[in-house]
Amino acid sequence: MRFPEWLRGVSSLRDPRLRHAVLTLLLLATGGLLVLAAAAPALARHAKGAPVVLGGCAAASVLIAAGAVGGLLGGPDALDLPFGPPWGPARVAIDALSAWFLLILGLAGTAASIFALGSLHGPEAPRRLLPYPLFLAGMAVTLLAADGFTLLLGFEAMSLASWVLVAHEHEEEEANRRAARIYLGFAGFGGLSLMLAFGVLAGGAGDVAFAALREAPPDGWRAALVLALVLAGAGSKAGLAPLHVWLPLAHPAAPSHVSALMSGAMTKVAIYVLARFAFDLMGSAQPLWLGAPLVALGAASAVIGALRANLEEDIKTLLACSTIENVGLISIGLGLALAFRGADLPALAALAAGAALLHALNHAVFKTLLFLAAGEVLHGALSRRIDRLGGLIHRMPVTAWAALAGVAAAASLPPLSGFASEWLLLQALLASWRVGDLAFQMGAAAATALAALAAALAAAAMVRFWGLVFLGRPRTPRAAGAEEGGRLVQAALILPAALTVLFGLLPGVMLDLAEPALRLMTRAAAPRAGFVAIGAAEGGARYWPLLVALLLAAAVGAVVWAVRRRAPAGVARGPIWDCGFIAAPHHLPFGDPSSQPTASGFGQPLRRMLGTSLLAAREGVTMPPPGATAPAVLQSGFHDPALVALEGPVPRWRDAAAAQAERLRDLSIRQCLGLTFGAVVLMLALLAWLEAR
Amino acid sequence: MAVVWSILSQALHIALIVAAAPVLTGVLRWLKARMMGRRGAHPLQPVWDLLKLLRKTPVLAENASVVSRAAPYLTAGAAVAAAALVPSFARGMALAPLSDLIVVAGLLALGRVAMALAGMDVGTPFGGLGAAREMSFAALAEPALVVAALSLAILAGTTNLDAIAGAFREGGLGLRVSLGLALVAMLAVAVAENARIPVDNPATHLELTMVHEAMILEASGRHLALWDFAAMLRLTLWLALLSAVFLPLGQAPAGAGPHLWIVGLAAWLAKMGALALALAAFESAIAKMRVFRVPEFLGAALLLGLLGAVLLFVSTGLT
Amino acid sequence: MSFGQLGYDVAHLLGGGVLLLSFVLLYQRRIGAVINAFATQGTLLALAAAWQAHAQGAPGLYLTAVLAFAAKGVLIPLALHAIVRRLNLHRSVETALGVGLSMTAGVALVGLSILVVLPATEGARALAREDVALALSVVLLGMLMMITRRNAISQVIGLLSLENGLILAAIGVAGMPLVVELSTAALVLMVAVVAGVFAFQIRERFDTLDTGSLEEHRGEGR
Amino acid sequence: MPLQWAIVFFAWGGAVALAAVPRLRTATLVNVGVSAVSFLLAVALALQPFAQHGWTRTDALNTPFILVSAFVGLTTSVFSAATLDQEGFDHWRIRAYHAAYQVFMGAQTLALLADNLGVMWVAIEIATLATVSMVAVHRTPAAFEAAWKFFILCGVGIALALFGTIVLYLAAQPLLHEETGLSWAALMGVAARCDPNTLNLAFAFLLLGYGTKAGLVPLHSWLPDAHAEGPVPISAVLSGLLLNAAMLAVLRAKSIVGANPDAIAPGPFLIALGLASVLLASVSLWRRRDARRFFGWSSIEHMGIVAFAFGLGGAAANLAGLLHLVGHSVIKSAVFFGVGRAAQAKGSQKIADISGLVATHPALGWGLAFAIAGIAGMPPFLLFASEFRLLTAAAAEAPWLALALVAGMVMALAALITVLQALCFGPPTSDAAGALDGWREAAAAAPLWLHLAVATLLGLAMPGALAAMLAEAARIIG
Q1: Where is this chain's protein located in or outside the cell (chain C) (predicted)?
Q2: Residue A581 — pLDDT band, cuts 50, 70, 90?
């Protein structure tokens, strides 16, 4: 008996009035967010204004999460709003799929809002306060939408609001302005692509209500075109390669709690749009190859993202790159689910889809946690650069340990949440050979290797992140003087950390909770594996996180017991054996930073192994002359090929075209008249020709 | 009754493998010394070393955090937990349902991460250097292992080690070229994971080449003992894994009584001895490669694994 | 009325005259002569309008005729002469298409307009069809003149003769409502143009009337 | 006097009166008053049932645009009241400016109201004449160049339109008696029986003639310069209103030709001109250094989108086109308010000289930022709805054309964002003279925000009556 089923069994949950209540609750929460946004400029003037707004956001997020659970336990429901575009009402609805992502949004939003509330210092500028509720509301609208217009309305509102937040430090740095510019450009591009996708999907009827779209699923080149457009639109928003370039620029530029939402929730909203199209709107009778591009792009994103995470030296950029990696893994799962469904293997399709959904949830939670921790580090040690941090575990223990939970999950270590979902994903990949097609089998085998590579690279990146930031010795006085945040901030860090552990130990429960969503996507349920386990297939491999955790605890306990019996307690303290480095000079009371591994130094092995080929990485060591005490300096750098392409050839073509167009503009009045004259003569000649025929 | 047997066998297995770990390392060193023409230390020397280290009080750097103190226990614990899952002389042990290949890999990764963090704790150059190299090599070893697991999963239909061993024991799979390729891939991974020649030299402390030793350079006393013990256990685990999957001869089937365990035990000891001999011969035959040649080594393993999988696709497609 | 009747012939004759003068304008180089040719064209247009008024029995067209004569035959040419004298340009000879070239281009345009109009207007009366064809030719020739001349005044004259073509078309279509109003409005536009060039040239005191000299003054430069 | 004419002649009467008022303050206030009354009259007219009255008619097609033009006229007069002294006019030019403004408004309304194509032609010509003088009013060489080009090119364009009108009558002549010979309604009635070839000829000239006024490539050369010189309010109404009148004229012509099955299909021509406009503008935007010229080019792009929509035809695309016209009027005039005010404050309309507006003038800066985002098609403004409708329709009808259109739109979007950030973000540049006192600064920013609010309202909660009217109009033009 699955856990949520007895809950679902409760008849009152099937009561339609309750479903209405759930949808109404969600709409009220969204409306409340909009009201907060409207009131923000006025409230910003008062000292208590900002706390009211952010507290309201937290409350609304909790409501959204609650409503999402209600939606998952109850049934679907739909509603037409009294307003909307000039040609009809805006339709909203909730079903299992949107409810699952609303749960993600609610959890991430709660943590982020509490963090923002806790890190308030004095009044907040309206331009930082107003867009935040709008951002949350935009995501909620996207998830609740039941027609193309409403969905895109929320999608673009989300982009616009977050753009204002990305640009919040526009006066200081050109880099932030560039990030905001590229970000909004990609947002607009994505929106236009999705508009086209809806158009192609709607066909002649032109009705973009989901109900109508489901009636006429596309086939042949139309299906391909829709998928391509959705990948361009939603994929660019989610950060799928090669349209991921904006993400490592924009996510770090925003305030930390917004970065957390962008990485944790916004990319998931984009994933939701992808899934809504591929699994719901395009109908279930799609061929096998429909999943192939998702798998390929996903694998590419996973590797690129994880590798970049090993080379970046700014902690928020590092985390953003790891987001790209996880989005890639999720997209592999979705692609496999599509392929399995096309090959008529519903159970495996449910397995892959379950892996994707579960990983979306887990990533949302631990990435929110990590970004919030990064924000706290930035606030405590006043820097995002790894080479200016270090040794923070001594000054900020709560942040450090909370971050460790997230790091372990991101490194997919058992028994934390990341491992559970990646275990499912690997099982799905290992089963992908059951799809008959040989080409797909080979591709899937390669994807398996790449996924494993990405996971291991992510582990390396996370060790680098946590080890260099929290361990070792402070690299700057400011890092040595870092301070822990307030209670609310700590709560905002501990909440997602606890969820990470919890979801890690009870993935089966979450999978059961997601079951209606899986049915909606694949017409099948994830393989049953009992209460505390998740399973690959009926009678296949199983993963029992609780038991594994117990075993681990028992083993560690046994080791401790055994050692304690023979070994003397306590330790002696002594100076570091610093490999023969001379003692640090007096102006470096915290030891000589240059005798510690640097960010680029730690990334060296992977930069040499993979970076040179994949990211055109380069490095040069300048050695001091013999006898000098100056440290050797390692310079290194890399280019993301996609960004190079975006800022290289594309502008060149544009400028070439513009140069040609300018020639037209530089015409004299006579030549302009010549244009008109030419147009007239051409038109007349055309008419004469038409009449002659 | 079967339950009792399974629990008994599990307990026996854990005791066996924990006891075997230092002895195996000792034997391995002794064999290598013999092959190199030295007399070599007594095979039990590692046991005595461990006991000696346990008695000593560890010295920690002033700025060492709790990580330095907790990591050794976690790594050793993870190694024990992983080792408990790999079938040795009998199948159907109590923890058999948990013995998933990927879970084992995950537990080993857990230990590895703990070791890397311990290496970075006090912020000495070597610790960071070793951690960086260790994680990088692991990043390349992981896909090779998973691809090898792909072949096994295709043949056995699951990644559960117990089931795989069973399938290879009973299911007349015969000799398959793809299995051989998978074996090669897993051997390469094992070599890398255990910091053996040619990837790393367990006996050296030469800065530029060492990986594993660099991380635990700061460790001493019981911590060092735990590190060494974890390393020995990992080696034993890998050899056990290889023998369980690729030479499942003599293994006692699930639910079998003690009388069959004797056979399994003897077979297992023989297999481990043979593998140790092979490893010793291999290590004394070749030299350690440059650090940045390792990717090629592991990349080749990965490609071999992929090749094996592809061949399997073809054969499954044909049949 | 159809071919061979007096009304038709006279209307045809006058329209042809207007067209002929467009050709003259097209290759005439000396500015003064251009203005005179334009004056003649205006007068002919006025006659054509008057004749149409008589032929169609539409008294309103007499007004059009008077306006056309007064403005195009007398006032505007005088004003243009004044500008020319003020800026002493009457000597200036400017590049225009050579006779041969302008003839060929013009004939080609006339051919095009006939090709377009005649099949396009099968429904209408022969006179109207002829008239529209001629008018279209005049319009096209006017535009051709505008784009082949650099001199602002010649350009204005081109626009004016283009507009003559419009009036020619308007009066040719029997029973066209508002024809007087439209032609008047068009006339106002033209007068405004002349006033514009007047005010503009005088105020600017460009040493040349070459519109090319304006191009340097485009906002935001090149 | 019927309401239709009352609106027109009230504005023109106001023009006469304003020509006699030399004082700036009184003149601006009278101007606002006249515009306000015209707005009320327009609302009253919109509340009346549709009717045809002599040369004028009110139908679903022109009523929304009459409302829009009256509204924009009112807000523009408010803006000009707040900022006119920045233009530094002497009292002659104050008279001329206000007179020309009201003459333009009257002519604009007449052009929208006209049922008789001849009257429409005359009205558009009057509107042109009224604005030309205003474009040149600053008497700089650049202003003269812009005015001269505007004048000559539009003169030729209008002439072509007149020829087209005449030929159109020629086509209908056998079927109609004289007085109704140019009535659009009557022509629609008999269009099916007219000689198709004559209709083709007429359409060719009407399209090119009024297309010049609408600034469609390749007839666009006058537009950017004309929108960039002259007083800011004139730019606002030129870009916001006159283009609508021209586009509506094109629509009337298209609907007549479209009503005849044997005539050429007008759609492809509009699509071709529209695509050309979008693509050319989308690249030309990248070369602009002058803020107001930049948004002139953006008007070309949007007119191209509209032409594309009408060329596509069908209820959905036509509705999209009409919505786009309305939204463009409201938002683009708002953009010109913002840019114009910014240029006055910074003492230059070069993009390089304006920066960091949100820091120095928060209300103006953020208003401008969102207005530009709205022009770029971001929600919640009306242009988002219209672009959604257009692209969904286009992708369903002709996916590949839609892709080309989107390519242009993305390029233009990127340019708009770049300029948006250049103007509003970054380290603020120092203000030149021209700081206004408090309430006038507010009055200068208020129209901008009002327009944004209206655009949002129209985009997300358009009044049912208006929406029904536009849907009906989309059906009318077929």
Answers
A1: Cell membrane
A2: low
Per CB-CB distance under 8 Å, the chain A contacts of C149 are: 670
Span D382-392, pLDDT tens digits: 999 999 999 99
CA angle C59, C64, C70 (to 5 degrees): 130
Q: Which two tokens stand for residue A388?
A: 């200016």
Residue C196's alpha-carbon distances to A57, B213, D144, D225, in angstroms, are: 63, 92, 10, 18
Size of chain C, expressed as the number of residues it contains: 222
pLDDT (tens digit per residue) in C14-62: 888 999 999 888 888 888 888 999 999 999 999 998 988 888 888 888 8
Report ipTM (2 d.p.).
0.92
Nearest residue in chain C measured CA to CA from D290: C220
Domains in chain A: boundaries? 289-563, 663-693
Shortest alpha-carbon distance between residue C19 and chain D (Å): 16
A479: its two tokens? 């890092």
Contact A669 D428 (CB under 8 A): no
Whether the CB-CB separation of A596 and B123 falls below 8 Å is answered with: yes
The residue whose two tokens read 């086509």 is D171
Query: Are C147 and A666 in contact (CB < 8 Å)?
Result: no
**Chain segment A105-136, per-residue pLDDT in tens:** 999 999 999 999 999 887 888 888 999 999 99
In DSSP notation, A525-580 reads: -PPP--SS-EESSTTS-EE-HHHHHHHHHHHHHHHHHHHHHHSPSS-EEE----TT
Number of domains, chain B: 1
CB C168 within 8 A of CB C45: yes
Nearest-neighbour CA in chain C from D209: distance (Å): 13
Residue with tokens 């400011």: A478
Q: Which residue of D has its CA nearest to C178?
A: D118
Facing residue for A687 by CB, picked from C116, C211, C214: C116
**Is residue B20 within 8 Å of B96, Cβ to Cβ?**
no
Distance from C-alpha of A46 to C-alpha of A29, rounded to nearest angstrom:
24
Q: What is the pLDDT of residues C89-105, one digit of tens each?
A: 766 666 666 677 878 88
Q: Contact D67/D104 with Cβ under 8 angstroms?
A: no
Q: How far apart are the first and last CA of chain B?
A: 41
Q: Under an 8 A CB cutoff, do D182 and C178 touch?
A: yes
A271: which 2 tokens? Answer: 């994933």
Phi, psi angles (nearest 5°) of residue A77: -160, 150
A424 to chain B: closest CA residue: B102
Burial of C192 per CB tally in 10 Å (0-12, 13-18, 19+): middle
Cα distance between residue A575 and residue A567, in whole Å: 23
Q: Give residue B109's pLDDT.
A: 96
Domain boundaries, chain C: 6-205
| Residues belonging to chain B | 319
* pLDDT tens digits, D170-204: 888 888 776 677 889 999 989 888 888 889 999 99
Contact residues for B149 (Cβ-Cβ < 8 A; gap 6+): A430, B101, B102, B159
How far does D435 lie from chain C, in Å, by closest CA?
25
Model pLDDT, residue B186: 92
SS3 content of chain D, % helix, strand, coil (to 5): 80, 5, 15
Length of chain D in residues, anyone?
478
Q: Is A568 left (phi over 0), alpha (psi -120 to 50) or beta?
A: beta
- H or E segment to which residue A618 belongs: strand A618-622
Residue for token pair 């085998």: A445
Please give the full DSSP string across A430-491, using - where no structure is assigned.
Answer: HTGGGSS-HHHHHHHHHHHHHHHHHHHHHHHHHHHHHHHHHSS--SSHHHHT-----HHHHH
Q: How far, in Å, are A271, A481, C178, D343, D387 from residue D392 at the CA level?
A: 22, 57, 44, 38, 8
